[in-house]
Design a protein that fits this description.
Layout: H1 3-23, E1 32-34, E2 39-41, E3 44-46, E4 48-53, H2 63-72, E5 77-81, H3 84-87, H4 102-111, E6 115-121, H5 141-149, H6 154-160, H7 163-167, E7 175-178, H8 183-186, H9 193-206, E8 219-221, H10 224-227, E9 238-244, H11 260-274, E10 276-285, H12 318-331, H13 333-338, E11 340-345, E12 350-356, E13 362-368, E14 375-379, E15 382-386, E16 390-394, E17 402-403, E18 411-421, E19 429-432, E20 443-445, H14 451-455, E21 461-470, E22 478-483, E23 487-492, E24 495-501, E25 509-514, E26 520-529, E27 547-554, E28 557-560, E29 566-570, H15 573-576, H16 582-585, E30 591-592, E31 602-608, E32 617-620, E33 626-631, E34 634-640, E35 654-657, E36 667-673, E37 683-693, E38 696-697, E39 708-709, E40 716-717, E41 723-727, E42 742-743, E43 746-747, E44 752-753, H17 762-770, E45 775-779, H18 782-785, E46 796-797
Parallel strand pairs: 4-5, 4-10, 5-6, 6-7, 8-9, 9-10
Antiparallel strand pairs: 1-2, 2-3, 11-12, 12-13, 13-16, 14-15, 16-17, 18-37, 19-30, 19-31, 20-29, 21-26, 21-29, 22-25, 22-27, 23-24, 23-26, 27-28, 31-36, 32-35, 32-37, 33-34, 33-36, 38-46, 39-40, 41-45, 42-46, 43-44
Family: Belongs to the glycosyl hydrolase 35 family.
Signal peptide: 1-29
Main location: secreted
Length: 798
Amino acid sequence: MPRKEALEMRSRLLLWFAVLSAAVAVVCGGSVTYDGRSLIINGQRRLLFSGSIHYPRSTPEMWPSLISKAKEGGIDVIETYAFWNQHEPKQGQYDFSGRLDIVKFFKEVQAQGLYACLRIGPFIESEWNYGGLPFWLHDVRALFIDLIMNPSRLRLLTETHPSYPAIYGPLKLAYMQIENEYKNVEAAFHEKGPPYVRWAAKMAVDLQNWCSLGDINACNGMKCGETFAGPNKPNKPAIWTENWTSVYEVYGEDKRGRAAEDLAFQVALFIAKKNGSFINYYMYHGGTNFGRTSSSYVLTAYYDQAPLDEYGLIRQPKWGHLKELHAVIKLCSDTLLRGVQYNYSLGQLQEAYLFKRPSGQCAAFLVNNDKRRNVTVLFQNTNYELAANSISILPDCKKIAFNTAKVVTQFNTRSVQTRATFGSTKQWSEYREGIPSFGGTPLKASMLLEHMGTTKDASDYLWYTLRFIHNSSNAQPVLRVDSLAHVLLAFVNGKYIASAHGSHQNGSFSLVNKVPLNSGLNRISLLSVMVGLPDAGPYLEHKVAGIRRVEIQDGGHSKDFSKHPWGYQVGLMGEKLQIYTSPGSQKVQWYGLGSHGRGPLTWYKTLFDAPRGNDPVVLFFGSMGKGEAWVNGQSIGRYWVSYLTPSGEPSQTWYNVPRAFLNPKGNLLVVQEEESGDPLKISIGTVSVTNVCGHVTDSHPPPIISWTTSDDGNESHHGKIPKVQLRCPPSSNISKITFASFGTPVGGCESYAIGSCHSPNSLAVAEKACLGKNRCSIPHSLKSFGDDPCPGTPKALL
């Protein structure tokens, strides 16, 4: 490879880092170092909780609220990736506007008194299109490989790139992460694998203030309290960069959530067992994959089960349970960071982790690894009951302040209220996409071209067109198409024939269908569709997609057209003309709904007014098939309602429309439908928390807020009574108590009934305490409810 080209490619990567550095230099602040126990900020050891909030997955108008709610939840650090392919979509053309204004994002973090963690990549994965790499790297992939395999040229590059010093600015954050989960692919590169991550670390170190302390390995996953082998050197702290608060969702697969209790257990274990001092929740707010930013098969809604949901609403009990955990850890953080750790057995599946300082300060974690049984253990001459599969935290080694399995915070229910429908045919106009044929395509080749390398990620769509002479036979011919893309639509002589699609788990699929062919000239048009580009795996630049084989079987004979002359068109005409914008929509002739009959590749447009209020706005696409939607020219993402999960449900039907996208009246909605969905059943709604519920027993600890600790840390006091605490969202109050029982209620917040023991005063007590209020608190005590309805029986309050 020419030396000049190699230097240019290395220059592009370093220039990206330099531009990024200059962009976020405004967040500079105190000195950061570390030892074998924790990060040290301004000379103080810190035990930090971090939350991932990705700036492009929300809007600038949402950032203050998201960061504020994270701070209220006990988060100290806001973490985000830098999304290279969004900031430099074309080589040398940068974009830091709107949702990409990383400067504004970090200024907001700083304004609210939190630290920042920047994960600079260059590769981020993140279920993000092409793993965050700009697709133009695909065309210089050999240069990119040379770039990462020859770190010795770093010094020469900086000397020969005069613009670098001018745009570089100092940057100090809580910490910075290079790369992401590289260990998963390193072995595939054999002896060339380790040099890359060493080069990336050296690059960060050599960039002056970026990372003057060297590299620290970290852990990603759900069980780092069990799986993390420890830092790469004993003088480095244990860092958990991705504690997955849920599991990202893909089309065609059922949801897999994660309970608040499990999250809390693993965090407590990581701190107690691994001396963990930095935990980042991935995601704390997932947000929305707007436009075409999601990777292969990934939903538009991202980590909706996070402590802050897709719309930024607090998800309970996850947010509140973690808030309680953070509070109890901070009660004893000084002891955890400066004390000596001890570990000893309390039983076959039980153990204690003890942290003690010479001054007498003490904190303990009592672990019950028995997943089925509650047990009683003896710890420091005192009996403690431990719930199954839980960790009890004693910030003073005496009293249980928190148990990971006992949720004292409220549960809430999110619901959607329909605000308007689009059920009149007069509300809609439609435009039918034309089906290109071989003669009208701008690109020709005597082979089947690879999809991604042809579209350059300018569109999800690539048309493959073919013309041929067919001599008829008695049998009806069969078309077979083998594809490595995600979806395929087949048209013969301008008429739709069939479609097929793959899955997240299977990288290939085939369309096999009988086709009506003319005797003589025939035209086949195949629309290959990607639902996001891959985001992971070794040799990402070598991955292929698109149609790999086309054959027609007729009367026992088969003809392979794979090396026949083909015509290609990138994208749809509606995309090219941008008919999803107000100016672009004037470039085509729209017709009344149903003018062409319902069919594939139809664009629909209508106008609507924004719902009143401030609640998040959503569009219901449960009647549609597959496609993409725009509001006032801004894409709210892909939808794929027709691809059902194994349980028979669509993966997602409600789609987020940020209020920042909306005008009070006359908003333009354009829907590009690949299949044959029904736009008359689209509706618009608002999302809000409509119900809250609390459930405690006499064995639950009281809220952490009731704890106080003496200045020397040796004495702790707390309220002795568990409480149900209920809280509505801002600007709303409790209007009705639908259920209340003090005694032995059956079930919990999701399903409940009065049990054999029930105080008749339950409803009246709850109504007096809560009706008309934004928040209320009801102690779990006989004093609150009067006579004991069942003496000697342990009681719950629901």
